[in-house]
Amino acid sequence: MRMRVGDLDVPASHTSCVTRSDLMEPTPHGSGSDEHGATSRPAGRQWEKTLDEQFDDAEGLGDDGLLVVAPSGVTPGDLDDLSAELAGTRQAEPAADVEARVRELIAATRRDAPPDHVAAPQDPAPRLVIALDSGSYDEFSPSNVTYLINDTVDAGIVQIIIRRGGIDIALTQLVKPVESIKSRYRDIAAGHEPAEANQLYDSIGHELHRDKPKLVSLCELVEKADLDIPLPQAGAVMCFLDAYPNFWPKLKPAIDGIKFKSTSADERGGGLFDDNCVIHISSLPCTPPGAFARLVVHEMGHALFQTILLNKRRIPVELNEDKVAKLLPADPSERSQRCQTLQSYWNEMSPEAQTYYRAWLTLREHDGRHLHGLDLWLDPCNHRLDPHQRREYQAREFSEFCAETFMLFAMGDLHTFVANIVLDDTVSVAVRTAWRNVWWVLGRVALPLLLD
Questions:
Q1: Residue 347 falls within a domain, yes or no?
Q2: Looking at the domain assignment, is residue 122 inside a domain?
């Protein structure tokens, strides 16, 4: 069946089908959106009225026998306007009026924040799930430890050493100790006692062995029986999911799987939530477990928290990157249409989403100086994921701010940071208010995802 809207002859399937990628917002690292980063129609739009309700039999057929169907709420005048626009005969909106509407939109997004929702972060608040690793990047960077790693068991041993902040053996002399620990781990896994006792080596072997059931559990969740990632990394991911047993049942319907050791994420910072709603995580053998788990939870934040906050709608690139002002020098006709799209999107954002967005606009200033950044080690392309990079990363795009703040909140890294900053009189009132409002939104949107 085909439908006619104005002078357009359109297959019916093109007007009624809403796919999951229409409803879910991937991380901006992904592709597949249009040049503005938005879908061409509001998510979930349906043709609501029956044909009999919308048209009389005689009026419902065009001259060529094609059925003429309009969505509910569309008047004949609207269709006339559409036809005029397609024919190029519609009168252009005065440039001054368009510019005024663009400036009104900018002012709406930057309106002063409402009074503080809370004086300071309140309980309940997520507590620290897994500590960020003790070892420093400068000492245990991949360039210093890669030579020790031949497989995932070696990687797991090195990751435990980093998590512990090192052992009393120089990195340049660790080849034989790693081999010895691997041998002891295999003995322990087989139920044998090592021939010679070594308290340090045995403790690392036992720590590896304790994470083995976690890998089995992760394999079951992601439905990949042969998943082979370092045991401490699997253990860290499961530590998060075990801490919030109600989170995975909410996440699973929102994604189409998690792919570990995915090369698709290698040039995307090590993690990617793509247009097909798949989470990709790179192979990161030198990344210690605390940092690895946070990279995974960041992508989960795109998939669930950001999606819920934005009501399953893609955020247009101008809003996502704070570039609405760039519409001002654009061609008036293009500017008018785009401004209408952005204004409609903004008006349909929930109060929580608008509050979060305005807080981001404040916190992104000065390259995100007042954002919270952790050291998440190194991505597969050797880009440092240090605290400065993580702050700049969030400052560039609202979607990354959503994912990173969810991760920080869920992992228990944010409570102390926000509590300290809102009590710091040397920090501007605007920044303190922004963080209070961030915490309020996280409590209303993120916390139920974790606990309810």
A1: yes
A2: no
- Please check whether residues 323 and 389 belong to one and the same domain: yes
- Judged against a pLDDT cut of 60, whether residue 111 lies above it is answered with yes
User: pLDDT tens across 264-296, in order?
Assistant: 999 999 999 999 999 999 999 999 999 999 999
Contact 378, 287 (CB under 8 A): yes
Which has the closest alpha carbon to 321: 379, 390, 391, 393?
393
* pLDDT exceeds 50 at position 72: no
Give pLDDT tens digits for 163-179.
999 999 999 999 999 99
Compute the chain's Rg from CA coordinates.
26
How confident is the model over 42-59, as pLDDT tens digits? Answer: 333 233 333 333 333 334
Position 341 in a domain: yes
Which position has the token pair 């065009």? 62
pTM of the prediction? Answer: 0.79
Query: 348-362 pLDDT, tens per residue?
Result: 999 999 999 999 999
In the predicted model, is pLDDT for residue 12 greater than 60? no
Measured between alpha carbons, how far is 424 from 199 in angstroms, rounded to an integer?
46
Cα 418 to Cα 438: distance, rounded to the nearest angstrom = 9
Residue where one domain finishes, among candidates 89, 117, 148: 89
Residue numbers of the domain that contains 158: 137-290
Same domain? 228 vs 342 = no
Q: State both tokens at 32.
A: 């597949």
Q: Domain check: are 177 and 248 in the same one?
A: yes
pLDDT in tens, 383-403: 999 999 999 999 999 999 999
Pairwise CA distance, residues 339 & 99, whole Å: 9
220 lies in some domain: yes
Q: Note whether 142 and 286 are same-domain residues.
A: yes
Give the number of domains in the chain. 3
How many angstroms separate the CA atoms of 21 and 34, rounded?
12
Question: Are residues 231 and 161 both part of a single domain?
Answer: yes
- Could you give the CA distance from residue 266 to residue 294 in angstroms, rounded to a whole number? 16
The 8-class DSSP code of residue 253 comes to G
Residue 197 has pLDDT above 90, yes or no: no
| Shared domain check, 392 and 263 | no
Indicate if 339 and 276 belong to the same structural domain. no
- State the Cα torsion 307-308-314-318 to the nearest 10°: -100
| H or E element that contains 398 | helix 398-410
Same domain membership, residue 413 and residue 343 = yes
User: Between vectors from CA 37 to CA 35 and to CA 40, what angle results, nearest 5°?
Assistant: 85
